[in-house]
Amino acid sequence: MGCCQSSFQTETHPENDQTQQQQEPQNRSQSSPGAAPDPAVANGVPSFSEFSLADLKAATNNFSSDNIVSESGEKAPNLVYKGRLKNRIWIAVKKFTKMAWPDPKQFAEEAWGVGKLRHKRLANLIGYCCDGDERLLVAEYMINDTLAKHLFHWENQTIEWAMRLRVAFCIAEALDYCSSEGHPLYHDLNAYRVIFDEDGDPRLSCFGLMKNSRDGKSYSTNLAYTPPEYLRNGRVTPESVIYSFGTVLLDLISGKHIPPSHALDMIRGKNIILLMDSHLEGKFSTEEATVVVGLASQCLQYEPWERPSTRDLVATLAPLQTKPDVRSFPAFTYSIS
């Protein structure tokens, strides 16, 4: 199955505008995989489209190893590359292993479903490609790396407490939006799925809204961080996503990747201070920390029905957002050359 040429991949020349208008039908639909792409850009985000493999090879320098941005590099099971389209838009391209999705129609349908989502808290999906054995997803590229890098591998300064609260709130908003739009399942939510845009604002990667592959493997992390019900039946549920959100809260609180069972033992023993990231040097509100720790504990309950909803997450974290401009801090000073 080949790919259609993406219309917003092609450079625009004024002298060709009239010819293009004559050749291209008006009011294109985005309702199905077979619909022609609409080149319109809403709020700076290109509309969802199908790319050709040639488009993506050109954008990524033929999938050069220099363009790999997967956190574990070439060892990642499904590589992610940064690329740049001819219209200068930067993109992230997730390249699945050969035949991870044997049925191209199923891959296209799932991609189109996720491609309908548009939110300021998401790194939105803007396209896909099916070409022979190739299965690729195309998303907005976020310049300022992952939460994992800023929490676990920082060089200049750690993330301040107010920013950690902002990250938790923004990701809760993203999950709540996806749930309200009929996409409550997010696969393998962790600190590597949270990425920062050019303004230093946290976004949730859209890639987690699709399974890693057709085989249904939805968690690639250590089993110690996997929802207990997934270990029992191998299925992701909306409650499983809440459990994984709880592990992200633990990351934000501690600055380390702590197994939930160990963290819960510390919480039950009222050792909240020991759980807090020492790199914060005590610069946090104990009252706020108590709220976040309590929320993490609720998310990590063994029984899925005891966990809060995405709406509960937003309601709990919203009152803690007292510094709306906290995103602009010195750690985010990267640029794309």
Give the secondary structure arrangement, pairings included.
Layout: H1 17-23, E1 41-42, E2 45-46, E3 49-50, H2 53-59, E4 79-84, E5 90-95, H3 104-115, E6 122-123, E7 125-131, E8 134-140, H4 147-152, H5 161-180, E9 194-196, E10 202-205, H6 228-233, H7 238-254, H8 260-268, H9 272-275, H10 286-299, H11 310-317
Parallel strand pairs: 3-7, 6-10
Antiparallel strand pairs: 1-2, 4-5, 5-8, 7-8, 9-10
Biased composition (Low complexity): 18-32
Organism: Gossypium harknessii
Domain Protein kinase: 66-321
In CATH, what is the class of the largest domain? Mainly Alpha
List the uncertain runs: 1-40, 328-337
By secondary-structure content and strand pairing, the structural class works out as: alpha+beta
Whole-angstrom Rg: 21 Å
Q: What CATH architecture of the largest domain do you see?
A: Orthogonal Bundle
CATH topology of the largest domain: Transferase(Phosphotransferase), domain 1
**Tally of domains:** 2
